[in-house]
Amino acid sequence: MNIDKTAVDGAAVVALAGRLDNAGSQVAREALITAIEPGGRLVIDMTACDYVASSGLRVLLIAAKQAAMAGCKAVLCGVQPAVWDVIVMTGFEDVLEAFGDRTQALAALTATGATP
Predict the structure, then answer these.
(1) Alpha-carbon gap, residue 68 to 71, rounded angstroms
(2) How high is the pLDDT of residue 94?
């Protein structure tokens, strides 16, 4: 699991690349939790993430809940079809909103009035 953390237009962007499995879950969790800012915006870019295990889904759920508790608007983007199928099968699509790409996700966060 490779992780790239950047800031774009005042939003934290955490790009996950590789397999979000047992080996990558802990590092992904730390990266996501530390990117959450009270009242902020978080984009979880999964464009280069080609596999998500149950431990990875748990990390996404924890990040979504932590973000909500902090008043941070968090969204997914670039979710690959195979990964999206797993998310849908588990009912997880109701927890985090997903967008096709990073540009769409950032635009949606701006449109909702979420502030950095």
Answers:
(1) 5
(2) 87
**Digit-coded pLDDT (tens) for 18-28:** 999 999 999 99
Could you tell me the CATH superfamily of domain 2-99?
STAS domain (3.30.750.24)
**74 contact partners, CB below 8 Å, separation of at least 6:** 36, 41, 42, 43, 44, 63, 64, 67, 68, 96
pLDDT recorded at residue 78: 97
pLDDT, the chain, mean: 93
d(CA 2, CA 103): 21
Positive or negative CA dihedral for 73, 94, 63, 7?
negative
Q: Which residues are within 8 A (CB) of 103 and not within 5 positions of it... i.e. 6 or more apart?
A: none
